[in-house]
Amino acid sequence: MAQIFHPSMNTIARASIFGAVFILAGAGGIIWTLLRSSYATQVGVVRPQPVEFSHEHHVSGLGIDCRYCHTSVESSPFAGIPPTATCMTCHSQIWADSPKLEVVRASFRSGESIPWTRVHDLPDFAYFDHSIHVAKGVGCVSCHGRVDEMPLMWRAKTLHMQWCIECHRNPEPNIRPRDKVFSMEPLPSAPEKTDAESGVSNVAIDLMQVHQIASETHCSVCHH
Asked: What digits encode the pLDDT tens for the residues 20-49?
């Protein structure tokens, strides 16, 4: 029987197989990088809002506590978006005629909520409870970043499952006294005294015991 393919086709076939492996690996690397880029995670990306609300001005400049606006954060699964009446407590007197606040005034007159764009929006299949994290000493800054330095709000963390699990496996670096939960100041990065075996700050170990924190990583914690 006559030979159908030229012997050089063997070389071409081998090169094609090796080339396909590298192409698939490269495509996988590109997809992996894209999924963790700010384009996909929205980390550091300012989301457009109907009102240019500055946390930097209100938190750092005016010293307003998180709980003044997010009233349910200590007792509810949701931090809560403040009603327009909360805004108008001040802005009926301050900047009352500012064109930038017309959306706020219109909302107050009509009773319709301001259509804010959510910055931290978890998938529906993931359950997160603000109140339990606050009760266990997890500071706002651990998840939301330094909002007191954000002229406009952006996402500071990816909110990926891997990021959540890393904290659940090793919560000590994010635990603080309850009276510091709403402080924007970061925790000390180099504690003076650490446990000889674990290398964890003795203060963090004490807080873990005080708050009765266990490392919870099974699926049902977040996926009910």
From this structure: 888 888 888 888 888 778 888 899 999 899
For residue 149, how many other CB atoms are within 10 A of its CB?
A: 11
For residue 174, count other CB atoms closer than 10 A to its CB: 18
Rounded to 5°, angle at Cα 103 from 100 and 106: 130
C-alpha to C-alpha distance for 135 and 175, rounded to whole angstroms: 10
Rounded Cα distance between 33 and 53, Å, is: 32
Q: 83: which residues sit within 8 A by CB, 6+ positions away?
A: 113
Query: What is the H or E stretch that residue 35 is in?
Result: helix 8-35
Report how far residue 95's alpha carbon sits from residue 26's, in angstroms, rounded to the nearest whole number: 54
Name the pTM for this structure. Answer: 0.77
